[in-house]
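Student: Send me a single protein entry containing the residue sequence and its fold in token form, directly below this note:

Tutor:
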Amino acid sequence: MYNEESSNWSAFIAGAFIGAGVALLLAPQSGSELRSSLRDYASRAKDELDEATEQGRAVWDSAMERGQEYLERGQEYVKSGKQAFRNAGRAAGDFVDESVHTAEKAASEATSRRG
């Protein structure tokens, strides 16, 4: 979506430049008037281009900040997932140890009753 808007905006600006240039060349003005008009138009165009560039930078900076935030959040999720996995592994190990101990105790009791 951003590329499409950027492309449309670029086409609009290019068309405006071409249209204004043709209009200035075809208008009945003296050389000094034409040069003055061209300077004014170039100055306005530069100001608009500077403004568009600044807006583009602001959008880029915002996108970079959001990307960094998402990356940091993702890293936090991975860390918490690893910790949860470790905790589950420890709990499973404790359960197995307890089960083995209970089974050994039950086997020992069963053996002592028989013998």
The chain has one domain: 2-114. The CA atoms of residues 27 and 76 lie 64 Å apart. The longest helix spans residues 31-114. The helical segments are 2-26, 31-114.
